[in-house]
Amino acid sequence: MSHPVVDPLQPVVRSSALPMLDRLERLARGELPPPPIAALLGFTLAAVSPGQATIDFEATARHANPMGTLHGGVLCDIADAAMGIAYASTLATDETFTTLELKVNFLKPVWQARLQAIGKVVKRGRTVGLVECDVVDETQTLVARGTSTCMTLRGIQAEGRQVEG
Fold first, then answer.
1. Residues 15, 162: contact at Cβ < 8 Å?
2. Is the pTM of this model over 0.90?
3. Is-contact 80 11, C-beta < 8 A?
4. What are the phi and psi torsion angles at 122 (to 5°)?
5. Using CA atoms, how far apart are residues 138 and 163, in angstroms rounded to an integer?
6. CATH 3.10.129.10, applies to 20-158
7. For residue 121, which of 82, 73, 162 has the smallest C-alpha distance?
8. CA-based, 20 to 30 A from 41: which of 2, 57, 82, 121?
9. Contacts of 152 (CB under 8 A, 6+ apart)
10. In the chain, what are the domain boundaries?
11. Which is higher by pLDDT, 122 or 155?
12. Helix axis angle, 20-28 relative to 72-88, nearest 10°?
């Protein structure tokens, strides 16, 4: 399915008309365009449910670091996306969030492979939550593991941060 190209220099139009999970489900079905970073790197939201999200990604030579392996920042990005979407799927309509901390352990070098980043909310409190992510290759071998601490924003803290949809 093709989507319009999003100009990363243009402001994103924000709306909170739909509950967050509904917007994310529409994104996974291809009914909404992907965020600019997803289009840039080439990852897609394969699945989302309350507290969980799966990102699909095809690592190719264009994602390589100077040593020829997949750049660690790309692994961080797909893990961050899976964890962020998993956390976002738990938010109420008037809530948004920000990442306070991101940590990724690189466990196996990758050259070219189909990867999945599977994010899961471990604990969501009223303000702070912990999310984890396993990045696996097509043989289900663990490539990287990430954790993230997220903070839920409400009221004035959430102003101007609602996602599109």
1. yes
2. no
3. no
4. -85, -45
5. 31
6. yes
7. 82
8. 121
9. 91, 95, 96, 97, 124, 126, 127, 128, 129
10. 20-158
11. 122
12. 130
